[in-house]
Sequence to fold (117 residues):
Amino acid sequence: MQYESLDLWQRSCELSTTVYKSLASLKDYGFKDQITRSCLSVPSNVAEGLERYTPQEKFRFLTIAKGSLGEFKTQTYVGMKVGYISKESGDAWLKESEEISKMLGGFMKYLKTKTTS
Fold:
């Protein structure tokens, strides 16, 4: 399975790209670094997991990606509250990250059934 062909990977890459571009001029480098890293961690861990050999390894990296989505969502909420992220952008990011999270959850369930069958 090529991770590049997965809608999950493509959408998480697109979200990460959008976040990087949107926050390019933000001067709070600590916040910008943290939110861009958490968002970038999602497609990166999907890719790394799918390059692994066993379903258990794949599952482990997808779990990390799912955790990074939670981190990203929290940072988006905070960024909106302090005025770094517009409501429109933040709401769109939160909606997309929720959909990506559901996709990850479904893929993880699929991998779990492969390990128990």
In short: The two ends are 19 Å apart (CA to CA). DSSP finds four helices and no strands in the chain. The chain has a mean pLDDT of 95.
